[in-house]
Amino acid sequence: MLRMLLAAGSGLVLSGLTATAADTAKKAPEAKPAETAVHQADFDLPMPGAAVDKLAFLPPVVAKYNAKEITAAEVRRVIQPYLEMGAANGQNPGPDEIVQMARQLVNSMIDEELLSARAAKDGYKPDAAGAEKKISDMETQIGKEKFADELKRQNLTKEEILKKIASVMMITKWVDEKVKPSVTVDDAVLEKYYKDNQKMFEHPEQTQASHILVKVDKDAKPEVKAEAKKKAEGMLAELKKGADFAKMAKEKSDCPSAKDGGDLGFFAKGQMVPAFEEAASVLKPGELSGVVESDFGFHIIKGGEHKAGGVTEFKDVKEQLRGGMVNRQIGKKMQEMIAGLRTEAKAQVMLPEPKMPAMPPGFPAPDGDAGDNAPEAATPPPAAPAAPAAPATPAAPAAPTAPGGK
After folding, report:
1. How many CB atoms lie within 10 A of CB 227?
2. Inter-CA distances, 304 with 156, 247, 263, 301, Å
3. Is there a contact between 235 and 298 (Cβ–Cβ < 8 Å)?
């Protein structure tokens, strides 16, 4: 949603980068700025049957930093529509989840403001042109009318979105140019991590295949299925006469993989529907199947490479590992920097502590803690908010339930 995207520009995106300095600073108490210790239990609970204000725990002033304040009204403006739309869709987060959401938003609003100021100090400016392009891309993806309706529905303006994206893009550039170059990882460190975590690089037997799908509902009438099968058989006959498989897939397949010439990439056992998997597993590279029926319609499958199970070689994962480790170290540098900026700004957050704080971004290092040398799942540099997802065009579901795009 655009409102949450507006917050994400500073909040939810930057929190992925920094895990929010205030909360992650618990691992380094000396760097943590003052924060009011308030707990959910300190707030009066509504009487049974009363209308529940899920944001009643917000004090009038939610946070302070430098000479600025973040008010409850600002937090409500972002979160309340999110809660209302979630409720309309049957999604009702619990009290602790809402508290965590508010804390994450407020902490990241502070972080974005402080980082923007830091980048500006180094001569960087908000990327207005880049923000305009991001908005244009959003409008192209979901349609200008729908984009405008979404803004209106959430009481937002295009100017607000542009300003936020421009700021985040400025921070992104600053991180890329001022922070990232200072981080390096030696090959010896990468190789040690690889050797110490062999299980992480194991892979099952895999098969590659391409296909052309004539989609038909599994509950379609017999005559409809017969017509679809006849169409697939006609295509197969053309292929056997020498027609180009990839070209035909791009022009006639009903699967999202059509754009890739029907190429599904590699998949392991159990990722595709049984009928498709069984037929694909016995094909030699370049060999065509007959017409294969599944719950999604009729497939013509072209066999590809088969890979035995085993351990991925170091050379094939080295750069991926390097990227993960660099990202982790950038994240650590940013946490430390933001913690320092928050201390200088005398940042205070007057919100209750959730009973079960959210897990920090990233994944635990396998086989014990690898510290700074564990690859990070989340990519640290902040990114401009992505466009809301456009309505999907009906197509054959992708793996694991059906052969889909890569």
Report:
1. 13
2. 50, 17, 9, 9
3. no
Rounded to an integer, what distance in angstroms lies between the CA atom of residue 300 and that of residue 289? 6
Q: Given this model, what pLDDT does residue 356 score?
A: 56
Based on the number of CB atoms within 10 Å of its own CB, is 165 exposed (0-12), middle (13-18) or buried (19 or more)? buried
What per-residue confidence (pLDDT) applies to 403? 54
Which residue intervals of 11-123 are DSSP H helices? 12-18, 21-24, 72-88, 95-121
CATH architecture, domain 205-308: Roll (3.10)
Which amino acid makes up residue 241? K
| Of 111, 106, 129, nearest in space to 171 by CA | 111
What are the percentages of helix, strand and coil residues in the chain, rounded to 5?
50, 15, 35
Encoded amino acid at 21, one letter: A
What is the DSSP annotation of 18-35? HS-HHHHGGGSGGGPPP-
| All structural domains of the chain with their residue ranges | 2-186+321-373, 205-308
What is the radius of gyration, based on Cα positions, of the chain? 26
Those residues with Cβ within 8 angstroms of residue 314's Cβ, 6 or more apart along the chain or in another chain: 190, 191, 194
Distance CA 253, CA 302 (A): 13
Mean pLDDT in each 10-residue stretch from start to end of the chain (406 residues)?
42 34 35 35 36 85 95 91 83 89 93 96 96 93 90 84 94 95 93 94 93 95 96 97 96 95 93 94 96 96 93 93 94 95 96 64 36 42 31 30 44
What's the chain's length in residues?
406
Run of H or E including 226: helix 222-240
Contact 19, 100 (CB under 8 A): no
Specify the pTM.
0.59
Strands (E), 159-253: 202-203, 206-215
Question: Using a CB cutoff of 8 Å and minimum separation of 24, what contacts does 174-177 make?
Answer: 174/115, 174/118, 174/119, 174/122, 174/124, 175/17, 175/330, 175/334, 175/380, 175/381, 175/382, 176/381
